[in-house]
Amino acid sequence: MRGAEAPFYLAHGDECEIFAAAYGNGLPVLLKGPTGCGKTRFVAHMAAALGRPLYTVACHDDLTAADLIGRYLLKGGETVWVDGPLTRAVREGAICYLDEVVEARKDVAVVLHPLTDDRRILPIDRTGEELEAAPGFMLVASYNPGYQNILKTLKPSTRQRFVAMEFDFPKPEHEIAVVTRESGLDEGRVRSLVRLAGKLRGLKGQDLEEGVSTRLVVYAATLIAGGMGVDRAIRVAMVEPLTDDEDVKRGLLDLATAVFG
Ligand SMILES: Nc1ncnc2c1ncn2[C@@H]1O[C@H](COP(=O)(O)OP(=O)(O)OP(=O)(O)O)[C@@H](O)[C@H]1O
Ligand SMILES: [Mg+2]
């Protein structure tokens, strides 16, 4: 394992073992979980630990199969075929990570199906090729079930092609370790920020659509470590990003004052 230079990732459970086992058996993996809980960092860490190149695609509602597979482009008067990130990963035996996969257009699922069952092939209609995935190729997809609406879910025939893992915000002791390491702030103040994060997460569903992410706690801690006052850092990193509602904001700031005393 070339794990030495892998980006820092603190495991919360057996996710690294599960990912490695899926990789070893050529199985695709689906990561579910709220924004900013460590999914992207986990994939970057695992790709480096397994010594595989990583191609990440941020999916959006205009993303088509051609964006993943490739297209003919005009280059100096000639048309040349240019591989998309998925095709490159299939050829090279890399990890292809489709972030927010539910956002992608429907034709993307059609492409993923033969790649994510035991065939492991990528048919490229435009060139007539049918690529067999190189050893080491792995498909990883993630999405946030919280944003789900009726139109944007994965079909059972797609989701049942993946080994799936649920991610959530870390336990306080883990989150303290993550935020301390990422921000360089002293553990005492990080502990208070994490306590506040726990309280803010308790408001999910009542006043807030989503609880505060670990990413935002890292932001607040980083700003404080850089010299910003605690009140201001909390306001800009842990309150304003969560809501536009003035009453809710005031409530969140009061909660912060209560936690920090
Ligand atoms: N277990 C962890 N180990 C190390 N860092 C973590 C961990 N969990 C969260 N982080 C920190 O939180 C930040 C946000 O995580 P990341 O970008 O991976 O979230 P995500 O789940 O991919 O979110 P999104 O769904 O919005 O893309 C990271 O940059 C990192 O600083
Ligand atoms: Mg991400």
From TrEMBL:
Domain ATPase dynein-related AAA, chain residue ranges per copy:
28-162
Pfam families according to UniProt:
AAA_5, CbbQ_C
Q: Which residues form the CbbQ/NirQ/NorQ C-terminal domain?
A: 175-259
Q: Does the keyword Nucleotide-binding apply?
A: yes
Ordered alphabetically, the record's keywords are: ATP-binding, Nucleotide-binding
UniProt lists the family membership as follows:
Belongs to the CbbQ/NirQ/NorQ/GpvN family.
Protein name as it appears in the record: CbbQ/NirQ/NorQ/GpvN family protein
What species is this protein from?
Albidovulum salinarum
